[in-house]
Amino acid sequence: MKGKKQTRDDDLEYVSLCKKGDADAFEVLVRRHEKRMFNIAYRVIGNYDEAGEVVQDAFIAAYKNIKGFKGEARFTTWLYAICINLSRNRLKRLKTRHYREGRSLDDPIMTPDGELLADPPSSEPSALDKLEARDVQQKVQLCINALDAEFREVIVLRDIQGFSYEEISAMLKKPVGTVKSRLFRAREAMRACLQDFMGDR
Amino acid sequence: MECKDIQKRLSAYIEKAVSSKQKAAIDKHLKQCKGCRQDLADLKKTIQYVQQLKDVEPPRWLAQRVMARVRAEAEEKPGIVKRLFYPIHIKIPLEAIAVIFLAVGTIYVFKTMQPQMQLAKIPTETREMAPAPATAQTKEVPAALSKESPAPARAGDQLMYDKKLEIQEEKSLGKAKAPAAMPEQERAAPAASAAYRDESERRGLLAPQAASPRKAAEGKAKEVHFLVTVDDLDTASRDIAETLRQLGGRAITTEPLKNKAVIDAEINVNKLQKLTEQLHLIGEVQEKGLAMEAREGTVEIRIDLEKTAR
């Protein structure tokens, strides 16, 4: 897990400067968080260029609304929530556009909704074990892309970014229980997706 | 527990986010169920794969572009702030203007109404007070001066003042449009004598133009006073009104009464001589209060018309 447990919010000092209109202080925050912001957006959206746009918009939105940050949560929780929201919106728009333009036959068609049936037990080594390292990065991202937005978010925030359930709950404004059950279903879908890739080979 | 229930909890189990009781149950099931063990292994592998995803480097221009936009925003900000607060800026003056308008309006209305209020005040006051001096004098003075209306021979000053007094009396009554007040006057008369002095003084204060007889006698009248004796009241008052108009004067009130008429007017002092000449043509003129002649500007004049004694 990459999440750092910080007892103090180092950003607050700069945040209060930003509230006074200090653009340089905001630059510190941008440089500090752009990478993580970008990776969240990139993993949720699955498109590098779109992620760049979304992160820009997210930072601008944060700057404009910095006075709305009351320090109830960590600054990053607040900042990433903006990023997640904008990513979700961008994803929705892209999907509509994608739908209108027609689907490519090469697109993975996987909609992991509802209960997943238990796979029949197999005596062979799991198909997942056969996934080669070089394929992994690409396949995992493809599988994430196949998930619905709400499942992408929890997978990205929990398994990739390593936020705690509480942090994720605060970012998504959903109860921890909801986050947990979504995460379970997202992981199951990921597993099914990766196994499918193995079966395709 | 069924495999289905176990699978639902494997995700939390991996993260040790299950209660110890559930953990024991899952552990027990996994020992017996190969399928669920496989599922657990696959899930762990899946999570592992996901966690292996490497961070990507954001585009190099990202922070730069963000800051360019932020700085543009910051420069624009005064404009935005101004625009946002513009309604408030204009609102405060609007409110201030409204208050000023209200205040000015109130003062204006009050000012325009004041003369009316004074006008309204004079008749009511005189209606109550005028009887007192009038009757008081007629009742009091006879004893001292041994004269009354059935003594036309006494055409002296006192008579004139009495007449004037009566005219004024009637005039004020007329102004008040209360002929019905006459009985009131009679009633008030006996009690009024004691209050005579006080009230005549007050009356003088309230209505300087309706100067009390006493003040007129002392030559302190604020107006030029003519007593014109004519044959035909109507013709004479028309002529006088015409004369006044020609001389640039302004007839304020004309009070036609039985055998008498009172004309109040304002006229430029310079024209006073002309007026006097004209009046002489109309009838027999007696002049009073000419002490004011030297003054400049307009002067108030009062012309008492009286029918020639039969």
Characterise this structure:
The complex is a heterodimer of chains A (201) and B (310). By secondary structure, chain A is mainly alpha-helical. Chain A has two domains: 94 residues, RNA polymerase sigma factor, region 2, helix turn helix motif (Rna Polymerase Sigma Factor, Chain: A, Orthogonal Bundle); 85 residues, Winged helix-like DNA-binding domain superfamily/Winged helix DNA-binding domain (Arc Repressor Mutant, subunit A), CATH 1.10.10. The N terminus of chain A is likely disordered. Among the domains of chain B are: 50 residues, no CATH class; 90 residues, Alpha-Beta Plaits (2-Layer Sandwich), CATH 3.30.70. In chain B, a hairpin with a 2-residue loop joins strand 2 and strand 3. Chain B is 65% helix and 13% strand. At the A-B interface, helix 2, helix 3, helix 5, helix 6 and helix 8 of A face helix 1, helix 3 and helix 4 of B.
Q: Could you give a short description of this structure?
A:
The complex is a heterodimer of chains A (201) and B (310). Chain A has 201 residues and is an all-alpha fold. Helices cover 67% and strands 0% of the residues of chain A.
Biggest β-sheet of chain B, characterized? 5 strands, mixed
The CATH class label of the largest domain in chain A is Mainly Alpha
Number of helices of chain A: 8
> Any idea what the CATH architecture of the largest domain in chain A is?
Orthogonal Bundle
Largest sheet of chain A: none
Based on the model shown, name its key terms:
heterodimer, A: Rna Polymerase Sigma Factor, Chain: A, Arc Repressor Mutant, subunit A, disordered N terminus, B: 310 residues, alpha+beta, Alpha-Beta Plaits, five-stranded mixed beta sheet, 11 helices, 65% helix, rod-shaped
Q: How are the SSEs ordered, and which strands pair?
A:
The complex is a heterodimer of chains A (201) and B (310).
Chain A: H1 12-19, H2 23-45, H3 48-64, H4 75-101, H5 133-146, H6 149-160, H7 165-172, H8 176-200
Helix pairs in contact in A: 1-2, 2-3, 2-4, 3-4, 4-7, 5-8, 6-8, 7-8
Chain B: H1 3-14, H2 20-32, H3 34-52, H4 61-129, H5 131-145, H6 157-175, H7 181-192, H8 196-206, H9 213-217, E1 223-230, H10 233-246, E2 250-257, E3 260-268, H11 272-282, E4 284-288, E5 298-307
Parallel strand pairs in B: 1-5
Antiparallel strand pairs in B: 1-4, 2-3, 3-5
Helix pairs in contact in B: 1-3, 2-3, 4-6, 4-8, 5-7, 5-8, 10-11
